[in-house]
Amino acid sequence: MPIPITIADDSALSRKTIRRALPPQWDVSICEATNGKEAITAVENGLAEVLFLDLQMPEMDGYQVLTYLKQHHEKAVVIVISADIQTQAQALVSALGAFRFLKKPLDPLLLATTLKELGLL
Amino acid sequence: MSGQFLSEEQRDALQEVLNISMGQAADVLARLIQTQVQLSIPSVKQSSRQDFIGCLKEPVQQHLAQQSFLGELSGEMISLMTDNGNEAIAKLMHYDTPLPEQDRQELLLELTNILAGACLHGLISQLNFKIQLAAPVLFNPASLCSEQLNWQQALLMEVQFQIPETSFHARILICLKQDSLYPLMHHLDMLLQ
Amino acid sequence: MIDEQLASQLIRQLPIGACLLTPDYTIALWNDFFAERLQMPVEQTLGRNLLELFPDQARFLKRKLDSVFILKNTSFSYWEQRPHIFQFKSTRPVTGQEELMYQNMEIVPIFNDEGQISHLFLAITDATTTASYSIALRQAHSQLEDEHKAQAELIRKLEEAQNQLLQAEKMASIGQLAAGVAHEINNPIGFVSSNLETLQHYCQSLVQALDFAGQLLAKHPSAELASNYQQYKTQHNLDFLLQDMPELITESLEGTGRVMSIVKSLREFSHVDSTEWKETSLIDGMESTLRIINNELKYKATIHKDYQEQMPLVYCQSMQINQVFMNLLLNAAQAMEQPGDIYIRISTAGDFARISIRDTGTGIAPQHLTKVFEPFFTTKPVGAGTGLGLSLSYSIIQKHQGKLSVTSPAGQGAEFVIQLPLLATPKE
After folding, report:
1. Residues on chain A touching B19 (C-beta within 8 angstroms)
2. CATH no., domain A3-117
């Protein structure tokens, strides 16, 4: 049974890049969200056992999504993938309950390691 | 050549590449000054000569520096910083304040090298270009007039950096002439495959 | 392909300062450029800490080197912002004016195979020639600007002086015009006046004649004649007429008298031969000047005169002296913000004639007192007066070997005093 995951990023290139970086052996069905609201909708519709979340999105950004999920869906698994790699951003994301912060450009090996840690691989 | 230089896809890709480069530049500065740096959403737009000059001359009270790059892609980066927040960033960069004029200039050139340089290097590494960076120099747009420029349309990529709780604000413009765009488009296409 | 020895020689002899540092600022390479200019041979510097060797520049160098580590990119320094990083003596000890070498610096990161920075390469280039040209150019430019400004100021002053001269010429020609007009008016006024005097006599005679006629008629036995006469007189309002006629003529004579007096003042003031030296009554000159500028003064000041009796004549250029009087009186009037007083005193003091003009106006500030006679000095706003009046007055009095001075005690207006020698000889 493929695992439902959601990739939330307003950049088409980025969504494509993340898709390509996913381990090929991982059996997933992918939903794409282009902003924070769509990401939350996907989570609430059970389409995001893992949510790959960009921080800079229109309508609702990644921080706002994390805050919402922390309040309403504590069990959600979020991996933040962002261009804003400053330590403050990483610390904030961690405090808001994300499992991991991965820097853009995304390193497929790091992604694989993270998924292994989550027991998903 | 009328119409847009880049397709929607290429523009979206370029914006993302810029975004990542900006993130790296902000990170470098943040580590140097041990303070968080705020990023804007980068913009990519086509500009006529008049718009370009207008861009440089507003707002009036700002200082500009220019840094050239050449190689597979050649163009110029222009950084624009207002006087506000100078003292704040100077302190963070371990300069003595009040800032004498020569130090202010040196700081502007240093920040240009850091921000513009890191942005460009981000672009280079993601798009696989071989490019050399020249030294940054002070730049006064007052003597620039559109008739002197030998191009009609240029691609302007703009990113902005701010330091919260100070009034420091820097704009970086990466400017490519129309005929420099083919290598850019080519490399973007490679990324998009 | 070059071998290690050749490469090493190349670096040593590069015409730029080359210094290779490890991440802890230790010097791994130090070429001849550095060694010779700083007089620090290679043996002394290899393995030493750069920041310890140059404590004065340590803060700046550390900042730059550290930033290259984080930047992972080249960092630059320009002579314009930081002229002398290392204290190299100038490479132009004979022809150059500078003591120290102007420098540009680049710090380039060197990466190892793992992508980490293994070394930092510090390159110093001599920018002295460019720097000195640039500085000289800037100085020349700024000098040009200063000269330009001075020239512009000079042009402005020349224009003002020219205006003043044109004005003086105009005044002179107006003077001539006035003299001409005065002359033309004088003749008809002369005979109007003399005719009126004759008419006055005739009038008296006619009145007497009618009186006599009336008396005769009154004595006549025919009462009808007398009453006809009376009726006639009443009908034609003769009584009133006879009373009014002499008054009309007297008033007309007063009028012509005034016209003649004005004409006389005009002629005295705008004497056609302006450079003529002659024995002059200063009192007459002052009076005619006062008449001329009566309109200017009448709402601004009350004039108080104190003329010495038997004031001697003074040998001078009367038109010029009158011009001085006019200048001082007009200044005095302009100094009054509210209607005030002007005290004029003409007297002798030893061998000098002394004319004092004192006003109750706003006075002159102490710091300006020594400057008031300077050409172009004015406290009036731009455009109101050229500041040449007092300096011209001063030079006129000087030509007469006299003295023009001013005092202005605080809160008491200003007093100008002219002294003219009684026995003057014209000075060329």
Report:
1. 11, 56, 83, 104
2. 3.40.50.2300
